[in-house]
UniProtKB/TrEMBL annotation:
The lineage of its organism: Eukaryota, Metazoa, Chordata, Craniata, Vertebrata. Residues 557-583 are annotated as: Disordered. This is Negative elongation factor B. GO terms for biological process: negative regulation of transcription elongation by RNA polymerase II. GO terms for cellular component: NELF complex. Keywords: Elongation factor, Protein biosynthesis. PANTHER family: NEGATIVE ELONGATION FACTOR B, NEGATIVE ELONGATION FACTOR COMPLEX MEMBER B.
Length: 583
């Protein structure tokens, strides 16, 4: 059959007899047994010492095939070891010459399953497999599959489309993994999207596979970066920026200098990586990062496109934004204005560059975006005044109240604040991080004061997955407030439900939050939310699935009618507890 033919493919070209030859010999001979014996002698293992041993094996009923197979396997192992040794010994030209000769001799047997590993091993050790052989491998699906990655790299570097086909499913998987984390049903303030350290993230399957595929090949590395840029432009998906940084740092971990030394972003990314690990940009590293930005030379501005992509990575933005909020609090304590703090200005400069990545790569105009003066002179001082309001309110609560009565928490926000969040991307990003900050501090008053400003934000940033993922996590700290009608109305009706019908992702995040906190929500409110959040015909599978999970949980909570009637009322006077000063 064809299977047997494949087994012996290429033997004839080498003048080695195969099954067909035996068939022919037997068809045309008068004494078959003699013919077989002669064929065995001519084509058997030619070792004088074996001639006497073979009949002995026959007596023990060991088939010749089994014997030949074990000799063959043994020889193949020796040959594989020898090939690997040749690849390391002697002068470079000589060893490759030996391997090339071996490849020339053995390649015609590449289809024989028993010999294939040897041929593949020879190719694997050749830094440059002859073009003709690569073409033959490429044209044959099974051979291509069986190739070592070292050989595939040689094929890929001149076949971008083929390489793209290999990389594409990995990139899809990467984006999916990121989205699964953002929409995960586990909501926690301790374990969120940004918890894993950079080192841990780089151990991820996709980064490791891409690193392995690239090896030390600069051409393949450049191709992957090109894919990432193109996809980022096409989709605006910032996770491609994360992968761009992770890939470079993964090669850095392996000390692959062939690539790291030619990527102009290497040292910048390495320094930023250390900041991301600490979730803070300290002064020493700030100076270093600034040095890289100031050091971009005339004629090399294109590197800004790459740097902006590194800074657009959500992990970088997260670190810069958290550092900005911390700086603003420090400035309040020092009575210093934002424009007087070089560290703060540098953070803003990097945020700007990161947020401008898409526009820069799209327009191919490589210069740093202009910072709006008002961001520094008006917006940041306004944020600082909110910090001051909190201090004042807290001090006020502690003062003995004379006739004046309690001072209410300021409930209005300056119109300018809302306008900044709508019109200025950097202001919006920092404003949102300030809201996350006060939520994490369980500062309900400040949260309810600023929440209305989030309904309309620059390019709907307040309804982006990363913000909502972090907000839902932080809201678990305000769990007890969900029993209050007023709090729920502000949060759900005033914020979430304004976008649910037009943005599927918001619908998902609200359902995630309720799955986690439904037992804290006032029953009447829960019922109206259940109605408001019912999926429509247009809703995707994820929303329907979450809604069903929520419905099941609520069904389990409903007491049966019998229980309701029999529970005696607990009308005991509650002990009076002094209420702690509200935070």
């Amino acid at each position: 059959g064809p299977g047997r033919a494949a087994m012996y493919a290429g033997l004839q070209e080498l003048g080695v007899a195969n099954g067909e030859d035996l068939k022919e010999t037997l068809t045309n001979c008068t004494e078959p047994l003699k013919a077989i014996e002669q064929f065995q002698t001519e084509n058997g293992v030619l070792l004088p010492s074996l001639q006497s041993a073979l009949p002995f094996l026959d007596l023990h009923g060991t088939p010749r095939l089994e014997f030949h197979q074990s000799v063959f396997d043994e020889l193949r192992e020796k040959l594989l070891e020898r090939v690997s040794a040749i690849a390391l010994e002697g002068k470079v030209e000589e060893r490759y010459k030996k391997l090339e000769d071996l490849l020339e001799k053995s390649f015609s047997l590449v289809k024989m399953p028993s010999i294939q590993p040897v041929v593949m091993c020879v190719m694997k050790h050749l830094p440059k497999v002859p073009e003709k052989k690569l073409k033959l491998v490429m044209a044959d699906k099974d051979l291509y599959k069986a190739c070592a990655v070292e050989v595939k790299r040689q094929i890929w570097q001149d076949n971008q489309a083929l390489f793209g086909d290999e990389v594409s499913p990995l990139l899809k998987q990467y984006i999916l993994e990121k989205e699964n984390i953002l929409f995960s049903n586990d909501i926690s303030v301790l374990h969120n999207f940004f918890s894993p350290s950079p080192k841990t993230r780089r151990q991820g399957e996709v980064v490791q596979k891409l690193t392995q595929m690239i090896g030390k090949n600069v051409k393949l590395y450049d191709m992957v970066l090109q894919f990432l840029r193109t996809l980022f432009l096409r989709t605006r998906n910032v996770h491609y920026c994360t992968l761009r940084a992770e890939l470079l740092m993964s090669l850095h971990d392996l000390e692959i200098s062939e690539i790291c030394t030619v990527d102009p972003c290497h040292k910048f990314t390495w320094c930023l990586d250390a900041c991301i690990r600490e979730k803070f940009v300290d002064n020493k590293r700030a100076r270093e990062l600034q040095g890289f930005l100031d050091g971009v030379k005339k004629g090399q501005e294109q590197v800004l496109g790459d740097l902006s992509m590194i800074l657009c990575d959500p992990f970088a933005i997260n670190t810069l934004a958290l550092s900005t909020i911390r700086h603003l609090q420090d400035l309040v304590g020092q009575d210093t204005l934002p424009r007087e703090s070089p560290d703060l200005l540098l953070l803003l400069r990097m945020l700007s560059l990161g947020q401008g990545a898409w526009d820069m790569i799209d327009s191919q105009v490589f210069k740093e975006p202009k910072m709006e003066a008002e961001l520094i002179t008006k917006f940041l001082p306004m944020l600082m005044s909110f910090v001051v309001d909190d201090h004042t309110f807290n001090v006020d609560q502690k003062l003995p109240s004379e006739e004046k009565g309690p001072i209410p928490y300021p409930s209005t926000i300056p119109e300018a604040f809302t306008k900044f969040l709508q019109e200025n991307r950097i202001a919006c990003e920092i404003g949102l991080y300030y809201v996350l900050h006060i939520t994490k501090q369980r500062n309900k008053n400040a949260f309810l004061r600023l929440l209305p400003a989030l309904v309309e934000t620059f390019s709907d940033l307040a309804f982006s997955d990363i913000f909502l993922h972090l907000l839902t996590g932080n809201l678990t700290l305000l769990g007890d407030e969900f029993a209050l009608e007023e709090f729920c109305t502000s949060l759900f009706d005033g914020f979430f439900l304004t976008a649910c019908s037009r943005k599927e992702n918001v619908h998902r995040h609200v359902l995630r939050l309720l799955l986690h906190l439904h037992h804290k929500v006032a029953p009447a409110k829960l019922e109206s939310l259940q109605k408001a959040l019912e999926p429509t015909k247009q809703s995707g599978e994820a929303v329907k699935e979450l809604y069903n999970q929520l419905t099941e949980k609520l069904e389990l909570r409903k007491p049966s009618p019998a229980e309701v009637t029999e529970t005696p009322s607990m009308e005991l006077p509650l002990p009076t507890v002094p209420t702690p000063a509200s935070r």
